[in-house]
Specification:
Oligomer: heterodimer
Shape of chain B: globular
Number of helices of chain A: 0
Largest sheet of chain B: 6 strands, mixed
Number of helices of chain B: 0
Largest interface: A-B, 18 and 19 residues
Number of strands of chain B: 11
Distance between the termini of chain A: 34 Å
Amino acid sequence: DTAVSQTPKYLVTQMGNDKSIKCEQNLGHDTMYWYKQDSKKFLKIMFSYNNKELIINETVPNRFSPKSPDKAHLNLHINSLELGDSAVYFCASSQDAGGHVETQYFGPGTRLLVL
Amino acid sequence: GQNIDQPTEMTATEGAIVQINCTYQTSGFNGLFWYQQHAGEAPTFLSYNVLDGLEEKGRFSSFLSRSKGYSYLLLKELQMKDSASYLCAVKDSNYQLIWGAGTKLIIKP
């Protein structure tokens, strides 16, 4: 059973389009995250959700919007895609132990290419 | 500002030992993680240190010195499958994870 899953694995699209990436975790974790990893392989936190509340929102463009229908899902919607959005997007989850964020488990990543 | 420093790339020989260093400057400290990431794959958890000293887990060990803001990951009996990027990450005072850029380890036969 896959602990953290993402769809799609690959996404190729045109500039200006709107797209969504889905993430689901079956670990029963309280907190989920979205990361962007660019060509230089640097992981940058974008968002995290704890019990359906946004608790981190790094200075990402408002074209990016996270949506969490329930504790097991955190989807990422991107409006008006730009060339610079091309990257690998990782979803992750962790158990919130008394307010302390614990080990994060990552999904397989979504490789987004904007043409 | 918050900063995590790691060497960009290292090369080692199969069967040998390699040490990957990580220095950090963060607002507070609540633990340090090491993750392994193979090319084209997701990061996977390797180790966690919150107290000073050495944590050993099979061929991999991780060391922490909080007073020096320093950690290292030690890999013994290197295998070709150990070729990967190794990411150092620190939990700051807000329990947010601050990531280093990773060290690409190349293993040669």
